[in-house]
Structures are given as C-alpha cells and as structure tokens.
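Moderator note: this is an archived Q&A kept for reference. The question asked for a predicted structure of one protein chain; the sequence and the answer are reproduced below.
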Amino acid sequence: MEILGEFGEDGLEIARKVTKEGAICDHCLGRQLAKISSGLSNERRGEILKEVLRERGEELKAGKCWVCNGLFEQLEYWVSKALETLRDYEFDSFLVGTKVSGLLLENEELLWEIAGASYAEPLKAELNREVGKRIEHDTGKIVDFKLPDVVVILNLWTETVEVQVKAVFIYGRYRKLTRGISQTRWLCRECRGKGCERCNFTGKMYPESVEELISDSLREEFKGEEMVLHGCGREDIDARMLGSGRPFVLELQEPRRRNVDLRMAEEKVNEENRGKVEVRALRYVNREMVAKIKNAKMDKTYRIEVELKPLQGLRGHGAEPHKTRVPEEEVKNALERLSGALIEQRTPTRVLHRRADLVRKRKVHSVRLVSFEAQNAVMEIKCSAGLYIKELISGDEGRTKPSFSELLGVEAEVKELDVLDVDLDREVEDFTV
C-alpha cells in the first residue's frame, strides 16, 4: 500500500511486536506511530497497519484491547457523560483532560517497553482529542488550549466526569454609604472564623462587609461558589466611600453562569443593599486586572471633619495649653503650609501589628477648608496613595511630619472621614475583556 511508505519497515515492525502481545484496538495501535505520519487519525492509522499486516500473512488476535481495556469502545459513553455534566454550565470554550487509572498506566508502560515510545502518543492525549471533537460537534463550542472557560476531566479511576471552571472577573467601583462596614470579610482574631463568644459565634469581627453584601446579591445570578473582592486600596471601617467610588475587581469562583447581564446585576446589588453599598460601571475583565489595580498608582481625595483641642496643647512638641479657641485664620494658614508638602510618615502606631515599621514619603497635593465652626474644621485633602490621612492630621505623636496638628500648634483629631475619589490611572481603568 502506498501509505506504508510513511510508516516504513521500522514502523511495521513496531506494529507487529504490539499485535503479538494480544488484541489491540485501532486507536491504540495507530497512536504508537502517531509521530511518523500526519493527516490521519490514530484510528485510521491503526486500520491501515492491520490491513498491511494481514496482507503479509500475520494473524491478528481478536477481542478486547489489552492496552486500553476497551476504553476507546466506550467513547460515546464518556461523551454522553461529559455532555450531561456540562448541561449545568454556561461556557463558550472548553478543554478535555483525563486522569488515567493505574492499570492503564501499567499497560502503557509495558507497551512502550515492547515497542518503544519514540513515535507514540499517550493514551490520554488520544482520548482527550476524540472526546473533545465530539463535544465540539454536539455543542458548537470551541476547544481552547490556553484559557478555556471549563476543563472537562474524565476521571478513569472513579469513572466520573469532573469540571474545573475558570473564574469570572468583574471590574467596577463601589460606594460604601454607611460607616462600620469593612471592605472584606474579617475573621475573628480569637477563633479565626470558627466561632466563639467574642464574635458571638459568627466567626467574624464585623457582621457585614462590602465583599459579602455584593457577593450575596450576585451569587445566585452566577450560580457560583466563593467570591473574593480585590480592592484598589481600602478605607477604614469607620470611613465612608463616596463620590466616584473605589475601584475593585470581584473574582467569582466556580461560576455555572458566566454571561450575566451586568446592568441588571448592578441594579440588583444596589436595590438589595440600599443605603449601605452601591456599585457602578460593572464590566467583565481578565484576571490580569487584579494585579493592575493592586499595583496602580492613584491619588485620593478625602473629606474630613477635624476636632481641634486647644486646651490640651500639643503633646510632644512643647506647646503650652494657653489657647481656648483657634482662630479660623490660623487654621487656613496651617492648611496652606500643608498643601503641596512632602510628608515623611513613619508607619502609624495603629497598624504596626501588620505593617513594617518604615518611614515613607508621600505628597499632599492640595487642601481646601470647607467650613469652620465651633472648633470643628471640615476640609478636603487630595494626596498620593499610601498616605495615612488620620495621622496626617494628628501627627501620631511625631511619627508623621509635618502634620496639621504640628503646623497649627494644637492637638487635632479626625472625627469623621469620607473618601470622595480614588483617581485610578486611565490606562488601567480602560483595561477590559
């Protein structure tokens, strides 16, 4: 036969050795010479080899394949099982993988000892391809070898089909309208989530978080499991996030649906969390967006209400407690000196338990006094990322220099804090699927 020229006598000798060991299916015979010829399926390659061997007088044994134990006779069974499992999932692309049983691995190794493995293709590669072709035909979905939406795992050990699902990533901005809500779920420090008296057996330090509120609204829409919120920085639990909102990426793990109408999802989140949390500008993004917002350089704008305490003086700076009130003009002068200042800020005392004790340099871009009444100043401050705003006001006993308190010569403390804007790089915010 003309096709024999591609296999050569060496290839035919390999086929002869393999068939001498027992009955072998066309798939398993053909894949032993998969790297020699192209343009043929392994099944067709095996048929041709058997035809040539018969023409040369070889007697071929009949029966169940001793290599795959009849696995390739059950292709339609595995295809049917895979399709049944996939019915619960929404996807556009897929890939098939196989967990090979111990018996089949032993047979494969024995086969390669007999015939060599120089031209062979592994059993699971053949099974993946054949099942994949049939799934592609029946569903109209495409095979993706790099980033498939789902990976179908044929588990030959347990005779089951498993599905690994690519996470869905959604970018947006959230507004936190109520104080006392943390950004992410905060496990109890005592029991680490197990539940104890300190956390009222909830396992959490705080009853609600932005992450949980958004996730609870979206979990049913995507029919997913865990959802993780990756924020572009975070505000303190006692601060609100207003204005344009804080950029975030929500990672939805093991979603059964992945093409949800995000405008409707946005409305659902906002309706169910009215007065607590709002989201806006939701859109699908790639996994890379998580790293981009984590590493992004962003300026932030705050509105803060500051209480002045003139009768207490200024600890650590030698100021005398002689003032009973601070004139508005002095407040304006201190803010003017703070505007544009380069701040040297040693890690604040309140976060030393989780941050390295370092001195960081940050910039105050601008400061504006909004109002001043009864020794309470409301101001807006725009600064670079990473500047602890509460310590910029109080000075943190000299760990932040200069501070508003130091420049004014009076103790000052933040009573309320709102984040008005997180100015993410435009090139980052435009990154989408």
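Archived answer notes: DSSP finds 13 helices and 14 strands in the chain.
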